[in-house]
């Protein structure tokens, strides 16, 4: 780790005027600084900022500095969010990591984290080592010839499914951005991962009220039971009346370069009976447009199976 200066402003205004890299829980930033992947000269500790609180009236509002474990255990938080958080990292990390930081965490691609290897995210124009390398954990959706790294956040998948928004603060004032519009596909600029402007800060996450999202879940398939990133995951919410799907929300992770909403699967579920056969038919379109690599073609079949598993988990006992 290289030397750096540390400041700890007490107000949002002071933080926005302080040049440097923001530090909250530090569970991503400190790791990358140790590896010399990130080498900021100035780190701005934002933990004293008034960006906490969880409000479940009229939807859900979460301060960006709330810790993952506190949000997961808060009454009134939708099950899909709580489950996604509980399946993320270890308990110790969940006690440290902030909600805003979770949404901004960097990819776990081993080539990105190895400064001896070419990586377009870390060094634009150097190449993507994963395309011809070890790519079992990498994306099959939303990729480009410049990057195939998956997005690591479980929480982001759940929030994308629920149409969450982010409140952002910057030198030019505040603005609101849908989380679905926040992340950027790699395209020709994989180093630009989101629409945050220089010096801008996430202050709050807002989830619209959705009463039927009480019937929701998050399924995560991984190589080991704990402290592992997803090979494939599915965030699902269902509105079922008289054994028929009235509405549905489906998003997936572990298979795409950004948290991936599946409107075609949602459309296929609407109006269909809540049966295994209907679920399998709807999930069969989930991998449309996928581009598998040499080691991750199994994700094309794992993806629909993961979605069906989540749907069945929500409907067992109601059929």
UniProtKB/TrEMBL annotation:
PROSITE patterns: FAD_PCMH. InterPro entries: CO_DH_flav_C, CO_DH_flav_C_dom_sf, Diverse_Substr_Oxidored, FAD-bd_PCMH, FAD-bd_PCMH-like_sf, FAD-bd_PCMH_sub1, FAD-bd_PCMH_sub2, Mopterin_DH_FAD-bd. SUPFAM superfamilies: CO dehydrogenase flavoprotein C-terminal domain-like (SSF55447), FAD-binding/transporter-associated domain-like (SSF56176). Pfam families: CO_deh_flav_C (PF03450), FAD_binding_5 (PF00941). Keywords: Oxidoreductase. It comes from the Bacteria. Residues 1-212 form the FAD-binding PCMH-type domain. Gene3D superfamilies: 3.30.465.10, CO dehydrogenase flavoprotein, C-terminal domain, Uridine Diphospho-n-acetylenolpyruvylglucosamine Reductase, domain 2. GO terms for molecular function: FAD binding; oxidoreductase activity. This is Xanthine dehydrogenase family protein subunit M. It comes from Amycolatopsis pithecellobii.
């Amino acid at each position: 780790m290289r030397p750096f200066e540390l400041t700890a402003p007490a107000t949002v205004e002071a933080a926005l005027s302080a040049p440097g890299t923001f530090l909250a829980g530090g569970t991503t930033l400190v790791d990358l600084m140790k590896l010399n992947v990130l080498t900021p000269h100035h780190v701005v500790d934002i933990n004293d900022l008034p960006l906490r609180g969880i409000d479940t009236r009229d939807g859900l509002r979460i301060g960006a500095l709330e810790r993952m474990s506190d949000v997961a255990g808060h009454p009134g938080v939708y099950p899909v969010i709580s489950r996604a958080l509980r399946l993320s990292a270890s308990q110790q990390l969940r006690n440290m990591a902030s909600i805003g930081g979770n949404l901004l965490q960097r990819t776990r691609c081993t080539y990105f984290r190895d400064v001896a290897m070419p990586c377009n995210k870390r060094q634009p124009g150097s190449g993507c080592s994963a395309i011809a390398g070890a790519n079992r954990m990498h994306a099959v959706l939303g990729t480009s010839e410049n990057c195939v790294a998956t997005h690591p956040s479980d929480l982001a998948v759940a929030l994308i499914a629920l149409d969450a928004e982010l409140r952002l603060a910057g030198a030019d004032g505040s603005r609101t951005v849908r989380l679905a519009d926040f992340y950027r596909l790699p395209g020709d600029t994989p180093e630009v991962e989101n629409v945050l402007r220089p010096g801008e800060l996430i202050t709050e996450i807002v989830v619209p009220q959705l009463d039927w999202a009480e019937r929701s879940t998050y399924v995560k398939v991984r190589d080991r039971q704990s402290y592992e990133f997803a090979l494939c995951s599915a965030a699902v919410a269902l509105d079922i009346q008289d054994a028929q799907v009235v509405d549905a929300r489906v998003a997936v992770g572990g298979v795409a370069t950004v948290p991936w909403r599946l409107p075609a699967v949602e459309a296929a579920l609407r109006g269909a009976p809540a049966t295994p056969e209907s679920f399998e038919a709807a999930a069969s379109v989930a991998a449309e447009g996928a581009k598998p690599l040499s080691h991750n073609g199994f994700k094309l079949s794992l993806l629909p199976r993961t979605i069906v598993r989540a749907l069945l988990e929500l409907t067992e006992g109601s059929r």
